[in-house]
Amino acid sequence: MKLLSPSCLAGLIFLLSTQIALADCLPNSLYLTRHAEKQDEKGNRDPNLSEQGQARALRIANMFEHININYLFSTPYHRTKQTLTPLSQSKNLAITEYDPREQDAFITQLKNNYCGQTLVIAGHSNTVPDMLQDLGIHFNVSIGKYRFKYQPSIILSEHEFGQMFFIRFDNDTPVLEILNSDS
């Protein structure tokens, strides 16, 4: 049996400890929201925000008036970028685009590259619930004594826009608070 030399063993221990440290470097908090109300344009897969959506985008910016934000993320669609534009302008922050089809890689990036930061992310009704689960938010649903084997996520209908999902980490455990941008 061949043993590792002391220098190889030390290097391996260093690499492993670095990887563990990176995995433990979580953001301070994340705010996830679905884009605001969009214009109803038949056949347009990338509509702008409606007047109601623009008003919501302003309310979202006002929600963060006294909160320090480090990064803004949005899918490349007009409605998600426009949802964060007033916040981007008020905080003088650029909006970084992410690909919603590469969500696993994006979640890994969020967990490992933004240690101690506060992030705001705009997504869609079909991406925000999955992101919540990928960040470790689980919903325990049971009926009587029966507990579902596969736990559901939050479901956002096509007509729900007001939820802002605030996630903070308490000893690496995600804690969810649901805020509202309706008023």
TrEMBL record:
Keywords: Signal. It holds the Pfam family His_Phos_1. InterPro entries: His_Pase_superF_clade-1, His_PPase_superfam. Residues 1-23 form the signal peptide. The keyword Signal applies. It comes from the Bacteria. SUPFAM superfamilies: Phosphoglycerate mutase-like. This is Histidine phosphatase family protein. It comes from Shewanella surugensis.
